[in-house]
Amino acid sequence: MKLLHTADWHAGRVLHGQSRTPEVREVLREIAELARSEAVDLVLVAGDLYDTKHPTPDAEAAVYEFFGTLAQAGIPSVVIAGNHDSPVRLDAAGGLLGLAGVRVLGNARVAQQGGVFELYAGGERARIAALPFVSERRIVKVTELLEEDPGRWRERYRQGMRKLIQNLTAEFRTDAVNLLLLHGTMRGATLANSEYQFHCTDDYTLDADVFPEACNYVALGHIHKPQGVEGMPEEAARYAGSPLQLDFGEVGDTKYVYLVEARAGAPTRILKAHPLAAGRRLKAVHCKRDELDRRLGELEFDGWLKLSVALERPEPGLKDRLKRDYPNLLVVEQRLPERGLEGGNGIDHTRVELVEAFGQFYRDTRGEALPAPLAEAFGELYRATDPLADEPSPAEGAA
């Protein structure tokens, strides 16, 4: 059985005001064409199809086009929700997507309630355990978080996840290809250095021994850097990583999908780590102000750019002047010796990014923009904890 493993598309991602959805559509077309040309039997999507729980119509259109293309090629797929997805929304679409050969699990289920299922592909039976993202808050009660030692919270999370995986994999068969999809963090995983990592921490991780030997392949999502799992053979479990460089923490990362051959009762083989070409690359340039003029040639780049300039004093309007010549320049950081990051307009961009991150979290969880009064209150809390934060809260944080 030939598998294609992908994850972490983040359709709907906006990078410093620039929509990445057209690039997501482009890379999904590349992946779908690869699945067709390689005669893949089954596509595994290990979560985070979307960047928010309330994706834009363009983001949904890009995702549905992908599954429509697979359906036309007669290729089934299995999809689980990630922490950025809305489990309820994915489950609601599951019936319709099922007509296109897509098996969707938004909310985590035990085996007896549909968390495990079988399908036939490539002339073989596959038994698939699907485990969408499970927040630690669903396993560790809030009252326990308030009353107990953090080490016990983490251990309780691991025990709870172990029991859930044991339930899902208990009836794996020797005459079937046994697959597990999971969206979560394995111990020892190398993060992609992404700018905002709300759920990717070392606090709530799983050990490799949580997976039974009967698993032919564990298709992982959540970590954006493609990699194996510490303590497991390279062929047995992998993070596919994101198909695009999603933010400036992923500069220089090559993006892949994995083609995997799995057979009942036989070792799994990674047939190919296929590098993806679609989408625009990211680049970060760091320099001192007196070096900037002679290094402007480095901004001649067809991807998205971030420039960090070390200055003695703020230089208002620097970004606007540069963007006239380099329209793909998304970020200009002004680094001052006494304050760290400073924007050319006198705003502390560390705080702007923090408020933006809170605004994004609010949109993800509430489905609406962060109200201006709440943004102002958040800024007040920030200033109360940072003695250097003495400017007014940035209005753009509420956008």
Explain the overall architecture.
Strand 13 (256-261) and strand 14 form a beta hairpin. The protein has ten helices and 18 strands. It is of the alpha/beta class and 399 residues long. The chain folds into two domains: 2-275, Purple Acid Phosphatase, chain A, domain 2; 282-398, no CATH class. It has helices at 21-37, 57-72, 87-98, 136-139, 142-147, 150-169, 289-292, 318-325, 349-366, 372-385; strands spanning 2-6, 14-15, 18-19, 42-45, 77-80, 102-105, 116-121, 124-131, 177-183, 217-221, 227-228, 237-239, 256-261, 269-275, 282-288, 304-310, 329-336, 340-342. The chain starts with a strand and ends in a 14-residue tail after the last helix.
Summarize the structure.
With 399 residues, this protein is an alpha/beta fold. The protein is 30% helix and 23% strand.
What's the architecture of the largest domain, going by CATH?
A: 4-Layer Sandwich
Strand arrangement within the widest β-sheet reads 6-5-4-1-13-14
The CATH topology of the largest domain is given as: Purple Acid Phosphatase, chain A, domain 2
SSE succession: EEEHEHEHEEEHHHEEEEEEEHEHEEHH
Percent helix among the residues?
25-40%
Principal-axes geometry comes out as globular
**SS-derived structural category:** alpha/beta
What's the number of helices? 10
Main sheet: strands, sense, barrel: 6 strands, mixed
Organism: Truepera radiovictrix (strain DSM 17093 / CIP 108686 / LMG 22925 / RQ-24)
Keywords: DNA recombination, DNA replication, Endonuclease, Exonuclease, Hydrolase, Nuclease
Domain Calcineurin-like phosphoesterase: 1-226
InterPro entries: Calcineurin-like_PHP, DNA_Repair-Maintenance_Comp, Metallo-depent_PP-like, Mre11_N, SbcD
